[in-house]
From TrEMBL:
Annotated protein name in UniProt: NAD(P)-dependent dehydrogenase, short-chain alcohol dehydrogenase family
PANTHER family: DEHYDROGENASES, SHORT CHAIN, OXIDOREDUCTASE UCPA
Transmembrane segments: none
InterPro entries, per the entry: NAD(P)-bd_dom_sf, SDR_fam
Source organism of this protein record: Enhydrobacter aerosaccus
Amino acid sequence: MSGFFFGYGRAPAMVAAEMSELSDRVAIVTGGASGIGAATAKLLQAAGATVIVADINEAKDGAGRFVAHDVTSESSWQALFTDVLDREGRLDIMVNNAGISGSPGNVETTTVEEWQRIQAINSDGVFLGCRHAVEAMKRTGSRKPAVKGSIVNISSIAGLIGSAGPIAYTASKGAVRLLTKSVALYCAEKGYDIRCNSVHPGGVDTAIFNPLWQTVGHEQGKAFIGARHPIGRMAEPTELGEVVLFLASDRSSFVTGAEFVADGGITAGLMRRA
Ligand code: NAD
């Protein structure tokens, strides 16, 4: 898909058409100030979309218009959607990406407070994003061109397989997986033109790993985690942004309720090499 943006060997008119593929679309990316969200915002904007970056921390040099937002707060969601619908008049793409890793506590060591903090951001935040997006996309269904809603929820491989370690994070990402399918089925049943899919990354080199980088160093930590992927490395954020771009665009028009795994092969099976 990277050829989509660079267009090597392609006719200029075709490249121009593809670059403006999302020119009539409005997108919100939560957690868009950093990592996967920032890369996604950049790719959506490059494809022509009007992008709103909704994050609790301000983006330093990211793409899109920044709106301060806390995904755990219902009043913050209301303010965000009032702002976007007043200014842009529509919403086509909702990327529920904001998330934290939290503590790596297990079933014996995780406190109720830590459990609830992680669910509030990673799971409740995605639920609220879906609820507000469905309402907005449904209401703007009469817009010209018509809204073809796409909701993309960022889960994790931790949402596909269990873990003895970070139980709260794993449970929060599992919730995102089935929440996504439920939203997809509800929208289809209602006849809304809204698709909803989840993305399941393996290790991606972002600030979410800062505690590890601070302990063992960035390059050493990256090599350590990369070696646990069959493909032999961690992903760069833009590699996940490309997946989100596909699911956000009409190129995935028959894809809903699906889980898109981008994990360098981790969940494909066991490796023969030690
Ligand atoms: P990141 O730390 O670079 O970005 C996360 C962003 O979320 C930050 O900008 C942060 O300010 C924002 N955020 C945190 N709490 C928020 C809140 N309450 N309201 C609004 N914004 C908030 O991390 P990332 O790796 O880019 O993570 C993005 C998503 O990808 C997360 O949901 C994460 O769980 C998921 N993920 C990441 C990896 C990985 O290896 N990096 C793997 C699987 C899944």
